[in-house]
Amino acid sequence: MKLRHIEVFHALIRCGSVSAAARRLNVSQPNVTRTLAHAETTLGVRLFERHPRGLTPTPEALRLWPAIEAAVKQLDVLDQLGRQLRHGVDQHLRLGASHAPGHLVMPGALIALQQMLPALEIELVTSHFSTLCEELLAHRLDMALAFEQPAPEGIECEHLMRAPMQALLPAQMPAPACVTLEWLNAHGLILMPEEDPLGALLNQALEAEGLMPTARLRVKTYSVIAELVIAGGGTGIVDPFTAERYRDRLQVLPLAPALDMNVALLKARHVPQPHCAHQLRTLLIEQLAIHARRWQSA
């Protein structure tokens, strides 16, 4: 199949009709029809059944689809590389981060990177893990920093750091010598949604100890958990970055036994990384090491 065959085939599968595919490709309907006919003649098989409401892919077309989709993704990679070459590989860096590392780890690394590369334009967005992965796969981000969890197909996760989650208690609450999950649960432990990466870890730990949550509150944003603890809404467990921000307003204590989480650098597989991305990776590792030393000395 030729490149134009692949583009038209992909558009027809996605859109379901010649007219919609033509709009997607910004060409005329006869152009799409001719290209499809040529592709079918070249392959010697019928790819679509025609009917009044549109097109239905044949079994032969469905067998081709995974390879076609993979080819289109690679074309997107080539298009991105072309844009980088056209505008200068180290002129623009698009970054994403989960909220907590975006607030505490990224700033120091970005300031250092700008000092090294004054002409570099940087975009940073903070979002949840699933959205960051979607943006990476769509080539709208170059890399992202997040708390590690199982990633979708096409995303590479590079482990950067392992760190213990921290317990949050109101400032005036008498704290035991050893803060356990059982004690926190008995004192109104605020939970996270099960689909959240840290929420999944916490739920697994509770189940492993045979504990039924006593609180009925689940909060996705870690800083909101801290604010609820300040307001007297119970106790909490959060990542060490969020805990560091609230150390002057709350009791921040280690869990026993420790409950560890991972920080990872995400990128789309097979997508070329600009040199400045590799420089940022080194700076992020340095920033994570600085935070780790702070936690150890606290």
UniProtKB/TrEMBL annotation:
Instruction: Kindly list the GO molecular function terms attached to this UniProt entry.
Output: DNA-binding transcription factor activity; sequence-specific DNA binding
Q: Which InterPro entries does this one have?
A: LysR_HTH_N, LysR_subst-bd, WH-like_DNA-bd_sf, WH_DNA-bd_sf
Annotated GO biological processes are: lysine biosynthetic process via diaminopimelate; positive regulation of gene expression
Q: Provide the HTH lysR-type domain boundaries.
A: 1-58
Keyword Transcription regulation assigned: yes
Source domain of life: Bacteria
Nucleotide-binding in keyword set = no
Which UniProt keyword terms apply here?
Answer: DNA-binding, Transcription, Transcription regulation
Q: What family is it from?
A: Belongs to the LysR transcriptional regulatory family.
Identify this protein by name.
DNA-binding transcriptional LysR family regulator
